[in-house]
């Protein structure tokens, strides 16, 4: 049976982080056992992972076309895999599906985060072998160290809220139409049979319901995405957009978006784009091309609101609020970043997020290309604001992580050029170059290492961009061979 994913995007790492994908060219049962155990433990609440057997990898990326598996071995490997999983304690069995690309066959083993973690697996294939805990460290499987064992024990039978069974609902509360629309949008092979297979089998295949045959119940993430009325089970699960028309808040317009949370997100963004975001055109003396900018760059708003939906605590009976005032936009959600992220971390250009609050919500949003995960949201918001010539965004939370606020300052028509300090940029300056110029204008200097971090490029590419900008006199190179930096040039 097909899986509720787009298999091509999975293999290319487009929707699922590389750390959650493991490629194996052939059948290596001992290593595969340990990897399944590590995904099941899901120590960071990433949502488990995918083991792809029959495709080799190089530097963590799939080698295509795949070498593949002989078709007559597929059933045998699946049977052996089932027996292999008996060596995991407590019992854990992943979902396995065969696929084919360019006539080459391979198996995808979907290993969602387990309900009864922590899990141990045999160190070797011997029945008398000792068992130990395995975890994922970035893109590798390893035996848990002492600290990781303590973390796993603290997670004993602790399932994230979005992945818990909801005993107040039945699978009749899930909408087949919503499920099929989702599968069609992500181009899953499961869409083709979703309308004809038994509904119980469909929701089990999607891992949005669990339980015995006589008491099959939906999980919370299933209700949030595939129920027509999720607010019935999670009061005030909605997005409220408030546009204020005065300074004291007596006059305002309110728009409330309900329904499946990804539909809320899309509808709220569409409303903000059409009703709030404005493009400004500023003529520049002596320059043929005008400067164009927005009161709020849409990409920043999109990332901020998607982050709010992704990281909200759905146990809290509070809506997501978007307050739009004359000079700023506030996006407020309840539930903050997971430890060890602190308030100070939000002042940094780059944030390394190790744990996620909602592992299944994140997976569904990533399949729909509504978010990326991996802590990319805040850097993208900053980048979009800088590229627009706006002030830096502000991120606020409290020590208890009970709320999270993203504050975006409006840029108005009175603002000067895209780059601060009234510097003008050449009409043919690229988006990357604008971002670098914006950074240098605020910090006086920049190095290739900083360019790597703010643009997310390799060292060689960072140096190439800086050399090109120096040749255009946008930047001036200074320093020694060992300590090279760049300052603003005169060609702006």
Précis, in short:
This protein is of the alpha+beta class and 492 residues long.
Write the layout of secondary structure elements.
Layout: H1 7-11, E1 21-24, H2 29-41, E2 49-53, E3 57-58, E4 61-62, H3 74-84, E5 88-89, E6 95-101, E7 104-111, E8 120-122, E9 131-137, E10 140-143, H4 146-154, H5 176-185, H6 191-194, H7 199-205, E11 209-210, E12 217-218, H8 220-226, E13 239-244, E14 252-257, H9 261-275, E15 279-282, E16 291-294, H10 298-311, E17 320-324, E18 328-334, H11 359-367, H12 377-387, E19 394-397, E20 403-409, H13 431-443, H14 448-455, H15 459-471, E21 475-479, E22 484-488
Parallel strand pairs: 1-2, 13-17
Antiparallel strand pairs: 2-7, 3-4, 5-8, 6-7, 8-9, 9-10, 11-12, 13-14, 15-16, 17-18, 18-20, 19-20, 21-22
Helix pairs in contact: 9-10, 10-12, 14-15
User: Between the first and last Cα atoms, what is the distance in angstroms?
Assistant: 58 Å
Task: Tell me the domain tally.
Answer: 4
Coarse structural class:
alpha+beta
Order of strands, widest sheet: 14-13-17-18-20-19
**Mean pLDDT across every amino acid position:** 87
- What top-tier CATH class of the largest domain fits best? Alpha Beta
At CATH level 2, the architecture of the largest domain is 2-Layer Sandwich
**How many helix segments?**
15
Major sheet description: 6 strands, mixed
| DSSP strand count | 22
**What does the overall shape look like?**
globular
The gyration radius over C-alpha positions equals 25 Å
Which topology of the largest domain does CATH recognise?
Heat Shock Protein 90
**Residue runs with pLDDT of under 50 for 5 or more positions:** 415-425
> DSSP strand (E) fraction?
15-25%
């Amino acid at each position: 049976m097909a899986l509720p994913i787009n298999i091509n995007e999975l293999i290319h790492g487009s929707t699922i982080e590389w750390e959650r994908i493991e490629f194996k060219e052939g059948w290596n049962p001992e290593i595969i056992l340990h990897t399944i155990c590590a995904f099941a433990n899901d120590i960071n609440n990433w949502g488990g992972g995918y083991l792809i057997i029959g495709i080799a990898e190089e530097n963590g990326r799939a080698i295509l076309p795949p070498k593949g598996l002989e078709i007559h071995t597929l059933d045998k490997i699946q049977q052996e895999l089932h027996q292999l999983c008996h060596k995991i304690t407590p019992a854990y069995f992943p979902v396995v599906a065969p696929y084919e690309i360019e006539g080459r066959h391979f198996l995808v083993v979907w290993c969602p985060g387990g309900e009864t973690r922590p899990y141990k697996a045999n160190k070797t294939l011997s029945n008398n072998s000792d068992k130990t805990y395995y975890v994922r460290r970035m893109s590798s499987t390893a035996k848990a160290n002492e600290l990781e064992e303590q973390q796993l024990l603290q997670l004993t039978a602790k399932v994230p809220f979005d992945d818990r069974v909801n005993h107040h609902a039945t699978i009749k509360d899930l909408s087949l139409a919503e499920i099929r629309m989702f599968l069609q949008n992500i181009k899953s092979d499961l869409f083709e049979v979703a309308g004809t297979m038994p509904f119980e089998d469909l929701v089990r295949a999607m891992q949005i319901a669990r339980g015995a045959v006589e008491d099959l119940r939906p999980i919370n993430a299933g209700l949030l995405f595939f129920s027509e009325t999720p607010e019935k089970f999670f009061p005030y699960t909605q997005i409220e957009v408030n546009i204020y028309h005065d300074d004291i808040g007596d006059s305002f317009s309110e728009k409330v978006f309900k329904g499946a949370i990804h539909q809320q997100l899309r509808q709220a963004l569409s409303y903000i784009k059409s009703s709030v975001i404005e493009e400004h055109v500023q003529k520049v003396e002596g320059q043929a091309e005008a400067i164009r900018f927005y009161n709020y760059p849409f990409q920043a708003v999109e990332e901020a609101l998607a982050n709010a939906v992704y990281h909200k605590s759905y146990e809290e009976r509070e809506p997501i609020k978007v307050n739009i005032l004359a000079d700023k936009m506030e996006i407020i959600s309840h539930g903050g970043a997971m430890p060890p992220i602190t308030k100070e971390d939000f002042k940094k250009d780059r944030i390394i997020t190790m744990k996620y609050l909602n592992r299944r919500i994140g997976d569904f949003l990533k399949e729909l290309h509504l978010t990326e995960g991996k802590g990319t949201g805040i850097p993208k918001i900053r980048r979009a604001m800088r590229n627009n010539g706006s002030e830096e965004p502000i991120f606020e939370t409290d020590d208890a992580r009970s709320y999270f606020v993203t504050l975006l300052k409006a840029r108005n028509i009175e603002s000067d050029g895209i780059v601060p300090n009234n510097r003008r940029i050449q009409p043919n300056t690229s988006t990357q170059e604008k971002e670098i110029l914006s950074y240098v204008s605020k910090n006086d200097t920049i190095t290739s290492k900083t360019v790597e971090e703010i643009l997310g490029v390799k060292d060689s590419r960072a140096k190439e961009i800086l050399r090109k900008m120096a040749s255009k006199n946008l930047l001036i190179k200074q320093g020694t061979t060992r300590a090279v930096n760049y300052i603003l040039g005169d060609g702006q």
